[in-house]
């Protein structure tokens, strides 16, 4: 059987990870917009990869199940990269929660039924989840383990009325969700982890750097220990370690890779965190 890499959200980070780890595999690129998936597939095809482009709506379980039928028809799913999402500058609260919070949780539930032995998942979360004001242990546990269909009805989720907070809660859930799913994936001989990038230069990042919070994000970069934004290839290098054989003991973990921006937020000379 052919080994398959599935990239959900065919943007720069998903493409970089697929390119780094998918030699000899069939790469499925799935996106809400077919044009995005087809463009990404063409780029990888020109680099020598075998690809399939398709569509998926990560906020719709039937759409995700249709994607799973497609990819399992091609071979064994060895890697899922969940890179689909919307930012606080791109969508209202309800959409952010449905896509970033519910969508990721549901995707892990569904792919957890078909992931091949020896396979893994990488969820692209965000540094924003690490800046969220402290939740209670009970709230953290609910984000980690509540059935996906119940997440949007949690009282502390329902009361969110700010797009940044919706994004932070969603990304906090992403980081916790891999912990909650790790035992279940382990029973299939598979692993599941998250990466929480800081500002990485992608089209989504350009939206933020030129949007209503542009000054905040540009100041964050200037004050971070690294003094710059990251690149998709740096995220892919970390993903290759986590998902590859050298990362075989890693599961249920979230990796913050933000040039020290979060460290500066909490512990820098003008610390804002508590």
From TrEMBL:
Residue ranges that the Swiss-Prot or TrEMBL entry lists as coiled coil: none
NCBIfam families with a match to the protein in the record: PRK06940.1
Sequence similarity: Belongs to the short-chain dehydrogenases/reductases (SDR) family.
Protein name: SDR family oxidoreductase
Organism: Paracoccus broussonetiae
